[in-house]
What we know:
Largest sheet: none
Strand content: under 5%
Number of helices: 5
Radius of gyration: 13 Å
Helix content: 40-55%
Distance between the termini: 36 Å
Mean pLDDT: 77
Shape: globular
Amino acid sequence: MNPLDKSALFERASRRASLRPEYLGWVLVRYADAERKTDEELAELLAASMQDLPRLRLCLCWPSCQGHSTRRCAGRNGGRCRGP
């Protein structure tokens, strides 16, 4: 699989995660709709890059992760918060 195919697949997976409430993408879509934010505005608000947005959408939301920074969630831990 070439890098473009992988990128498209990753983007598709992140968009699908937006349909499921256990993923941060679900929350982000509802917030963006309510506040009429574009993806660019949302990324800026989260202090994330546009490249981080798909990774953020794929983060699993766990009650124990509330209060963690978006950078920590989008970090190198596979999209799962692992505690404080």
